């Protein structure tokens, strides 16, 4: 199993541009999550999904959108990128609510 | 909110046990305590979790006090590869609040 994969690894965006961060898991997990991590800080939950077609907001959802059309994929959309969205983005998945979360390698995003 | 409090950093000699404390004084009855670690800038790695009883796996032991207001993660024989930021997390009843906090930077020294 590849586990959780994320693309791209790095990206530089100009202010106002949009992009989609891709996340795929091959473990048939129901739950998927998007986190962001600012320098020197812990992770903050952006959005999560409990299954295909079901998504909900986390702690810091503003400026982001998600969709979950399949069990495997959980893309994160940034509209009108702002410097405050410069961060490292991690995708994770888990089998159930209390199950351990498996994390991807992260996407390092810079908005200038 | 059942947030957690951890010391910002700790040192441990290689081969010795590393004991990482965590306070979660407002934890509720059905909330689990989780431990993850993050090595460099990699994605966090799950270590262990528990509800009331002490837990042990191949990586670590988790000791939860009887009143559940604090816990300790024990790495029995720390190695240089265990140098990482360790996060203690309490999952709130509302699923969308899963606070990682700032964690404890464990420095394992030769």
Task: Jot down its keywords.
heterodimer, A: 112 residues, mainly beta, 4-stranded antiparallel sheet, B: mainly beta, globular
Structural summary, described in words:
The complex is a heterodimer of chains A (112) and B (110). Chain A has strands at 4-7, 10-13, 19-25, 31-37, 43-51, 54-57, 64-66, 76-78, 87-94, 102-103, 107-111. Chain A is mostly beta strands. In chain A, the strands form two sheets. In chain A, strands 2, 4, 5, 6, 9, 10 and 11 form a seven-stranded mixed beta sheet that branches. In chain A, strands 1-3-8-7 form a four-stranded antiparallel beta sheet, with no helix packed on it. The model of chain A has no long low-confidence stretch (mean pLDDT 94). Chain B has 110 residues and is mostly beta strands. Helices cover 0% and strands 44% of the residues of chain B. Chain B has a five-stranded mixed beta sheet, with no helix packed on it. In chain B, strands 2-7-6-5 form a four-stranded antiparallel beta sheet, with no helix packed on it. In chain B, strand 3 and strand 4 form a beta hairpin. At the A-B interface, strand 5, strand 9 and strand 10 of A face strand 4 of B.
Write down the overall geometry of chain A: globular
Q: What strand order characterises the main sheet of chain B?
A: 1-9-8-3-4
Low-confidence sequence ranges of chain B: none
Largest sheet entry of chain B = 5 strands, mixed
Radius of gyration of chain A from the CA trace? 13 Å
């Amino acid at each position: 199993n590849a586990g959780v994969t994320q693309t791209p690894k790095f990206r530089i965006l100009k202010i106002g541009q949009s992009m989609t961060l891709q996340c795929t898991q091959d473990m048939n997990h129901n739950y998927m999550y998007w986190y962001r991590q600012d320098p020197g800080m812990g992770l903050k939950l952006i959005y999560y999904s409990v299954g295909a077609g079901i998504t909900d907001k986390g702690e810091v959802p503003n400026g982001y959108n998600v969709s979950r059309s399949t069990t495997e994929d959980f893309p994160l959309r940034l509209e009108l990128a702002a410097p405050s969205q410069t961060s490292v983005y991690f995708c994770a998945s888990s089998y159930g609510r209390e199950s351990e979360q498996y994390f991807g390698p992260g996407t390092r995003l810079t908005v200038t | 909110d059942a947030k957690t409090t951890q010391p910002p950093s700790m040192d441990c000699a290689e081969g010795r046990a590393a004991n990482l404390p965590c306070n979660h004084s407002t934890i509720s009855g059905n909330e689990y305590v989780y431990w993850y670690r993050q090595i460099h800038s990699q994605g966090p790695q799950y270590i262990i979790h528990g509800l009331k009883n002490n837990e042990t796996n191949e990586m670590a032991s988790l000791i939860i006090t009887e009143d559940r207001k604090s816990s300790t993660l024990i790495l029995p024989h720390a190695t240089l590869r265990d140098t990482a930021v360790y996060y203690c997390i309490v999952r709130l009843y509302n699923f969308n609040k899963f606070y990682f906090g700032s964690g404890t930077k464990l420095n394992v020294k030769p």
